UniProtKB/TrEMBL annotation:
<keyword id="KW-1017">Isopeptide bond</keyword>
<dbReference type="GO" id="GO:0042126">
    <property type="term" value="P:nitrate metabolic process"/>
</dbReference>
<keyword id="KW-1000">Mitochondrion outer membrane</keyword>
<dbReference type="GO" id="GO:0005741">
    <property type="term" value="C:mitochondrial outer membrane"/>
</dbReference>
<keyword id="KW-0496">Mitochondrion</keyword>
<dbReference type="Pfam" id="PF03476">
    <property type="entry name" value="MOSC_N"/>
</dbReference>
<protein>
    <recommendedName>
        <fullName>Mitochondrial amidoxime reducing component 2</fullName>
    </recommendedName>
</protein>
<dbReference type="GO" id="GO:0030151">
    <property type="term" value="F:molybdenum ion binding"/>
</dbReference>
<keyword id="KW-0576">Peroxisome</keyword>
<dbReference type="GO" id="GO:0030170">
    <property type="term" value="F:pyridoxal phosphate binding"/>
</dbReference>
<keyword id="KW-0832">Ubl conjugation</keyword>
<comment type="subunit">
    <text>Component of a complex composed of cytochrome b5, NADH-cytochrome b5 reductase (CYB5R3) and MTARC2.</text>
</comment>
<keyword id="KW-0560">Oxidoreductase</keyword>
<dbReference type="InterPro" id="IPR005303">
    <property type="entry name" value="MOCOS_middle"/>
</dbReference>
<keyword id="KW-0500">Molybdenum</keyword>
<dbReference type="GO" id="GO:0005743">
    <property type="term" value="C:mitochondrial inner membrane"/>
</dbReference>
<comment type="function">
    <text>Catalyzes the reduction of N-oxygenated molecules, acting as a counterpart of cytochrome P450 and flavin-containing monooxygenases in metabolic cycles. As a component of prodrug-converting system, reduces a multitude of N-hydroxylated prodrugs particularly amidoximes, leading to increased drug bioavailability. May be involved in mitochondrial N(omega)-hydroxy-L-arginine (NOHA) reduction, regulating endogenous nitric oxide levels and biosynthesis.</text>
</comment>
Length: 302
């Protein structure tokens, strides 16, 4: 059946839309309206106004040997916040002066060979000032900040999850640029938790309300704004969820242990997810467009 002959079933509105433009940072940039891209995070224009044709920009903190650094390795990274002003990326962190970086780098800046989940990918160095800023803030090693550029070769997601299409590619995100979670699923988890957790523990790009807990597990194709998305994988959760987004302290147990008590995969999917609990759904962008907070979420059904 052709796409335009599919029926639409309304699920609920989108109360929040977030971007985490530097991998591993949990203080997100909140969007009123945002474009979508297939490789990962879009670039935000000033005053939270966005255009479908803007060039995507992505950033990654690395060690000097090129290996990625996220909140898994450096929990304090989650305390870094990001805003955009006048085509500049502005970073703030407790006890640090703000760092202002141009979003367009000089072509003479060094190219780094980086490693993200064991896969090779490049990034252009953001300069010594950025490197010193992260090194001074984290105080554990020497770090660099790099940026992915549109002409660079992306990573093939199926090298991480073999069940994915071999042509599906991403830049620095784990395996997909879009992860959706419902407020009802978070509320369900918190009924089982002694200490409540927040939505930022799970870093969704899109939060949906008006549905039942874990109803997102059943959605395949979605329409939000004029963006069409297709489910590719449930989101397997790791130790990153145990980093408190308000303090940068890692617990290493909760909420991961509670999720493992009731959100493990079906035995038939053990080869994909292993022992990781599932919470949220990864989507591919099938039709690029724009969406905004408050847009209804439609399930596309035949």
């Amino acid at each position: 059946m052709e796409r335009w002959s599919l029926a639409l079933r309304v699920i609920g509105p989108t109360p929040s839309s977030f971007a985490f433009d530097i991998k591993g940072i949990s203080v997100p940039f909140r969007y009123r309206k945002r474009p979508t891209e297939r490789l990962g995070r879009p670039f935000a224009l000033t005053r939270e106004v966005f255009d479908q044709n803007t060039v995507p920009k992505f950033w990654l903190v690395i060690k000097e040997d090129g290996h990625m650094v996220t909140g898994r390795q450096e929990p304090q990274l989650v305390l870094v916040s990001i805003t955009y002003e006048d085509d500049c990326l502005i970073l703030r962190a407790p006890g640090m002066d703000q760092l202002v970086l141009p979003t367009k780098l000089l072509s003479s800046n060094k190219l780094h060979d980086c490693r993200v989940f064991g896969l090779d990918i490049q990034g252009r160095d953001c300069g010594d000032e950025a490197a010193q800023w992260f090194t001074s803030f984290l105080k554990t090693d020497a770090f660099r900040l790099v940026q992915f550029e549109k002409n660079m070769k992306a990573r093939a997601s199926n090298e991480i999850f073999p069940s994915l299409d071999k042509n599906y590619q991403v830049a620095y995100p784990d395996c997909s640029p879009v992860m959706i979670l419902s407020e009802a699923s978070l509320a369900d988890l918190n009924t089982r938790m002694e200490k409540k957790v927040k939505i930022n523990n799970f870093r969704p790009n899109i939060v949906v309300t008006g549905c039942s807990a874990f109803e997102e597990d059943t959605w395949d194709e979605l329409l939000i704004g004029n963006v069409e998305m297709k489910k590719i994988l449930a989101c397997p959760r790791c130790i990153m969820t145990t980093v408190d987004p308000d303090t940068g302290v890692i617990d290493r147990k909760e909420p991961l242990e509670t999720l493992k008590s009731y959100r493990l995969c079906d035995p038939s999917e053990k080869s994909i997810y292993k022992s990781s609990p599932l919470f949220g759904i990864y989507y591919s962008v099938e039709k690029i467009g724009s969406l905004k907070v408050g847009d209804p979420v439609y399930q596309m059904v035949q």
